[in-house]
Write a structure and sequence with these properties.
globular, single chain, about 40% helix, alpha/beta, Nucleotidyltransferase, domain 5
Length: about 210
C-alpha cells in the first residue's frame, strides 16, 4: 500500500481500470466560499493517488478527462458534495457514479449511521481514523498524516460497493439506487444554483432561512 502525491494533475500513464474510487478535500464545506484542494483516487488495489490541484487555475486535463470518461465508473461516499465541488471548480459533469452513502441509506434502514467510518466498521471491520478531518488542506506542503487520512477515504470504497450492491439486489432496490446515482449531476446543479437547503419536492417549499 502506497500514497502517491501528484502536483497539479494526474500523470499521463495511470490506468484505474473500469472503476475508480474518488474523494475530495476542500477548505470547508461551503459550495459558495470554499475551494477544492485535493482529489484522491484509488483503483481498489491498496494504493492511493492524491492530486493537489492548482487553486489558481484548476488546469488538470488528465483528471478532468477521467472524471468525464463514460467508460469508468466513479465510486464516491456522499457523491452529492464531491460532484458539485468538482463541477464548480473543474467544470466537469461526472458520470457514471456510484455513491456508497446513497446505497447505504437504501439498504441499511436499520440504522441512521451512514457515514464512511460507520460503514467501514460494520461491513469490512476497518476502523478509520478521522483525526485529520478538520485540517488545512490548502497548505502548500501536506503532512504524512494528512496524506494518510486523505487516502483512507478512497482505499475501501470498492469493497463497500461490492457489499452494498449485493444488498441492493437482495432487497430489489438496485434500479432505485441507479436512478438516484444518475440524478446526482442534477442534484449538484440544484445545490450550486442555490437550492441546496430547499426540498423542491415538498408541497410547502419552506425556505431554510
Amino acid at each position: 500500500m502506497a500514497n502517491f502525491l501528484h502536483k497539479g494533475d494526474l500523470p499521463d500513464n495511470i490506468d484505474f481500470g473500469k472503476s475508480v474510487a474518488v474523494d475530495t478535500e476542500t477548505q470547508g464545506l461551503s459550495l459558495v466560499r470554499d475551494k477544492l484542494c485535493l482529489v484522491q483516487l484509488s483503483a481498489g488495489d491498496g494504493d492511493a493517488h492524491i492530486v493537489q490541484v492548482d487553486r489558481s487555475n484548476y488546469e488538470c486535463p488528465n483528471l478532468k478527462a477521467l472524471m468525464e470518461n463514460p467508460d469508468v465508473e466513479k465510486i464516491f461516499h456522499f457523491a452529492r458534495f464531491d460532484v458539485a465541488m468538482m463541477k464548480r471548480d473543474l467544470g466537469v459533469t461526472i458520470a457514471p457514479v456510484f455513491c456508497t452513502k446513497i446505497a447505504s441509506g437504501l439498504v441499511r434502514t436499520y440504522t441512521d449511521a451512514h457515514g464512511l467510518k460507520a460503514l467501514c466498521k460494520e461491513l469490512i471491520n476497518v476502523d478509520l481514523s478521522k483525526h485529520q478531518q478538520s485540517s488545512d488542506w490548502a497548505a502548500d506542503e501536506l503532512t504524512d498524516a494528512q496524506l494518510d487520512y486523505a487516502a483512507s477515504d478512497v482505499l475501501y470504497l470498492h469493497q463497500l460497493q461490492r457489499i452494498l450492491t449485493a444488498r441492493l439486489f437482495r432487497e430489489n432496490r438496485w434500479e432505485l439506487a441507479k436512478a438516484c446515482f444518475e440524478f446526482l449531476p442534477t442534484r449538484a446543479d440544484l445545490d450550486l444554483g442555490g437550492w441546496d437547503g430547499v426540498d423542491i419536492f415538498s408541497h410547502s417549499l419552506k425556505r431554510p432561512y
